[in-house]
């Protein structure tokens, strides 16, 4: 007998609901409305909240407070780093040597669109950009990386954990290779912070991006770690905020929300990791048992605990998504930032999956509110949805051929 319709959210990689403790912290902070740059008491109160939050966030990744810059999003953080090396103020930023000697960028074919589009923009301006390929699991080709590095390489940017397939890169080893070549290293850790342990000292990264709304914090706030002593140039200008590194009145409420989300990650992440691993295995096993002709994408072990990307032969991902939505189940066909596109996932294509198979893929990302009952409901409904979508696809194909 079919279960009653329920609401199941499996799109935590796109965004997460506010943690109850984050909501409380932000509500309590609403009375602190002062401009943090003002010298009067309301301003000083807001400034203290921000600096306390900065310490909390820095400590979580083993950084110094002054190495944390608050920005509007993970995308802004990534854009800031990629655009460093086209900065018009290179001379004043003491980067002239990089401009004349090192002016090439290396990234990968599976980065988030905000990195890839920024890199493409740099190419249009004359910067040489190399795109490193990946294996069938989404792991970058270290041989390609080594071959691409030269004394002209200024920056290498590699995502820590992929937003579509969940594959986790060996950032420590990549950093070692990059540093040996004398280049700066940036990692987009938006999907990784708060989900897997991160120590910027151990990883030896120069720049690291993350965002609040991926870890049960508010939207519109992110942070960029900039290692002390590395080059930096503001992406947004016009004010002295963030020690002149990011203009604009600080988002006090957002910053407090991010800090509280980080606090809760420190408390909950370890147990949640174990629970999500178990739930993902239950989901994967259920799909394997009940739905034929499926393929799981991403690395089988070096993967985020709550990310499962699946290809269903003979089915369209958009159709699967819409039919699941009718059953109260929210999933994704890939990156939320690229969901308006009908093109197949650039991440899956980079792993060597045929276009047809990439078109038949969905991403299910689990989170702190996901339950066993949710997983069982999804398995039951997904089995029926795939059968129906495949039947429709088969009829459509026969009609075209006939």
Q: Can you tag this structure with a few keywords?
A:
Aspartate Aminotransferase, domain 2, 43% helix, seven-stranded mixed beta sheet, three-stranded antiparallel beta sheet, 14 helices, 2 domains, alpha/beta, single chain, Aspartate Aminotransferase, domain 1, globular, 402 residues
Describe the protein:
- The chain is α/β, with parallel strands linked by helices.
- It has helices spanning 20-29, 41-60, 74-82, 96-101, 113-124, 142-148, 171-180, 200-203, 241-244, 252-290, 317-326, 346-350, 355-359, 372-401, and strands at residues 8-9, 68-71, 104-108, 128-132, 153-157, 184-188, 207-211, 222-226, 294-297, 307-312, 329-330, 361-365.
- Strands 2-8-7-6-5-3-4 form a seven-stranded mixed beta sheet, sandwiched between helices. The protein has a three-stranded antiparallel beta sheet with strand order 9-10-12.
- The longest helix is centred in the last third of the chain and has 39 residues, at 252-290.
- Mean pLDDT is 92; it is low at 335-339.
């Amino acid at each position: 007998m079919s279960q009653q319709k329920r609401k199941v959210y499996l799109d935590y990689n796109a965004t997460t609901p506010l943690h109850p403790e984050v909501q409380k912290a932000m509500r309590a902070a609403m009375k602190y409305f002062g401009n943090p740059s003002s010298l009067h008491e309301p301003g000083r109160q807001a400034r203290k909240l921000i600096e306390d939050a900065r310490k909390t966030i820095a400590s979580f990744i083993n950084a110094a407070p002054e190495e944390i810059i608050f920005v509007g999003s993970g995308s802004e953080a990534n854009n800031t780093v990629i655009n460093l090396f086209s900065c018009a103020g290179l001379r004043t930023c003491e980067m002239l040597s990089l401009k004349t000697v090192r002016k090439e960028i290396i990234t990968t074919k599976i980065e988030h669109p905000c990195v890839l589009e920024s890199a493409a923009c740099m190419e249009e301006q004359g910067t040489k950009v190399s795109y490193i390929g990946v294996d069938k699991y989404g792991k970058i080709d270290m041989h390609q990386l080594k071959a691409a590095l030269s004394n002209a390489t200024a920056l290498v940017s590699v995502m820590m954990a992929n937003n579509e397939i969940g594959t986790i890169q060996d950032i420590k080893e990549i950093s070692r290779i990059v540093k040996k070549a004398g280049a700066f290293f940036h990692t987009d850790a938006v999907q990784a912070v708060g989900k897997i342990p991160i120590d910027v000292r151990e990883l030896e990264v120069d720049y690291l991006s993350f965002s609040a709304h991926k870890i049960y914090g508010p939207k519109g706030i992110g942070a960029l770690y900039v290692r002390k002593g590395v080059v930096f140039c503001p992406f947004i200008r016009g004010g002295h905020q963030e020690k002149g590194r990011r203009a604009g009145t600080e988002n006090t409420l957002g910053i407090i929300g991010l800090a509280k989300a980080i606090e809760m990650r420190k408390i909950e992440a370890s147990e949640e990791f174990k629970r999500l691993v178990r739930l993902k295995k239950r989901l994967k096993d259920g799909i394997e048992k009940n739905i034929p002709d499926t393929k799981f994408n991403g690395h089988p072990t070096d993967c985020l605990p709550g990310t499962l990307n699946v290809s269903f032969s003979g089915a369209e991902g958009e159709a699967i998504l819409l039919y699941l939505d009718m059953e109260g189940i929210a999933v994704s066909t890939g990156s939320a930032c690229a969901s308006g596109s009908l093109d197949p996932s650039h991440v899956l294509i980079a792993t060597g999956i045929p276009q047809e198979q990439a078109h038949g893929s969905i991403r299910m990302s689990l989170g702190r509110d996901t339950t066993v009952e949710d997983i069982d409901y999804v398995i039951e409904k997904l089995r029926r949805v795939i059968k129906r979508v495949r039947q429709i696809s088969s009829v459509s194909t026969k009609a075209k051929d006939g």
